[in-house]
Structures are given as C-alpha cells and as structure tokens.
Amino acid sequence: xxxxxxxxxxxxxxxxxxxxxxxxxxxxxxxxxxxxxxxxxxxxxxxxxxxxxxxxxxxxxxxxxxxxxxxxxxxxxxxxxxxxxxxxxxxxxxxxxxxxxxxxxxxxxxxxxxxxxxxxxxxxxxxxxxxxxxxxxxxxxxxxxxxxxxxxxxxxxxxxxxxxxxxxxxxxxxxxxxxxxxxxxxxxxxxxxxxxxxxxxxxxxxxxxxxxxxxxxxxxxxxxxxxxxxxxxxxxxxxxxxxxxxxxxxxxxxxxxxxxxxxxxxxxxxxxxxxxxxxxxxxxxxxxxxxxxxxxxxxxxxxxxxxxxxxxxxxxxxxxxxxxxxxxxxxxxxxxxxxxxxxxxxxxxxxxxxxxx
Length: 357
Description:
alpha/beta; five-stranded mixed sheet; Nucleotidyltransferase, domain 5; two-stranded antiparallel ribbon; 3 domains
C-alpha cells in the first residue's frame, strides 16, 4: 500500500472559495488541519504549512476535484515537486456513521490515498495541448446542440411563411441560403406577425451561419492539435477529429494508465465475466469514461461497415455463434489496445511528473 512508502499524506477537500486540508501519518492519525483560500495566497500558505508539519520528505497529496475546484491547487503543488493523486468523491457507504463535513471529507481523502496500491495510483490529467483539446471538445458539444436547436427553430418559422419560405424549409440550409435570409428585406405593409417572424428568421439565420463557421474553425483547431500530438492518428480507419481528440483527452499522457488493460478499464471496454453454470461468456462493461467509450463505439461501427478485415472478422465470429453485441464488444477491446499503443508511442504525450514516494 501507499502507506508503506510515504512519510505523510495530505488530504484536501476542494470548494469554490476555500479548501480544507489534513496532514496525517502513514497510520492515518491526523497531525494537523488547516483551511486555505482558493487563490495564490492560499496555495503558498498550504505549501509552507506542509513544509512545517510534514515529518519527512515523502509527502503524498490526495485532492478531490483535480480538474474542477482543485485545478489551480493541483498545478501549484505539482510544480512544487509534490506527488499529487486524484481522489474520488467518497461513496455514501463510506460516509455511513461519520456524517458530512469538510474536515471529514479531507480525512477520508487521506485514508483513500493511504490504502491505494502503489502500482495503481490515479494520477491527474495533464494540461497543455490535452487541456486545449478538452476545451475544444466541450465547445463543439455546446455549438452542436445550439446549432441543431436553432436550425430546427428556423425551419419551423419558414414552414409558417409563404410557399417560397416553405420550399426553403424543405431544402438544405446552405451558407448562401443563410446569408440571403439574414439580409432579406421585410415585405411591404407587413402585419405585426409578419414583422416579428421576419426579424426572428433573420436573427436565427445569422446565428446558424456564425455557429457553422465556429464549428468549422473548431474542427480545424482540433485536427491541428491531434496531428501535432499523434501524427497519423486520424488517418486510421474510423478515426476522425472528434474520436481522435477524445482518445487523446482521456489518455492524457504516457504513464497515466500502466498498461492497455488499465486503459481498457478506463474506456469501459474491458470484458466482464457473465458466466453461470454451463454458460461461459463475457458482457459489456458499463463503467469507465463513457465519452471515450462512445468514441470507440463509433470507430467500431465505422469499421464494421467499411473495413474489409473487420467485416471478415465479423463473419467468422458470427459463424462461431457470437451475437452482434458480443462481436462489437470484442472489436472495441481490440480498438482500445490499438489506441493505447499509438498514443503510448507518441513522444509529444510524454509528461514529466513528480516521482511516487
């Protein structure tokens, strides 16, 4: 356990305004506690506090929310050379009999860290280009949802107009059509309804046009970053700017997952036993990073349609009595191994982190 290889453990429960910290011995006995503000002054105070109270140099910091409220603190502690691990939010079964408070959560973060296997430490995700890809993927999702809603709204308004507008609603809203709708003149002697409808059509056409341009720029940025980090990844069959970017974001950096089996568990593609009696089988894993699992699922579907090698594999496994779901589960596991090997071999994803105690 990690408790056998460290001199002290610090558990931190993070919040928007303040963080609660506890420093404990490897036995889990608390030594000191403190509350700091979520800013540079508070981070410097915490570093000095750890130096004053730590009984030795081997200090492990367990932070809840390393990519949320604790992202700034994680960066400062990592830059200071401390070994930082990511702590999951305590389950309600763990809280049973202890209640809920910031000091309790900080203590639970300490205990969770000390019980970890040193070969399975949850290292926080990397910053830099990986973080840029994560931001772009989030922006793409918002733009796509907004663009779809506004396009549907625009078509509905056009269907309520004259025959020309209804014809536009049935067709494709190209860039030229959107540009014309956003600049067309109001009819003569319009009613109040026509005035409102005309103004709303112009507004929606302008918004859809701008969102479409933003989506194209977003895709170009994602493609450029993925090509810089893992050259040739999007050239593999089934990989696009979205699926490749999601794979890089979830993988983060070399060393975060100790092997391809751990990466498969992260992706939710590792097989789970579902055997009983004479039935020996595996089932899909419904855990892990579901966004990454969705990306791998998309790659598998594309290859099942377009890849001759994959189609031959599907035919052979079907003849063996496998169902489509079982075959797809096997394909997703193979694709996960392929992604892991490709990303591990990329020098740009190598990250230097503080060594474990």
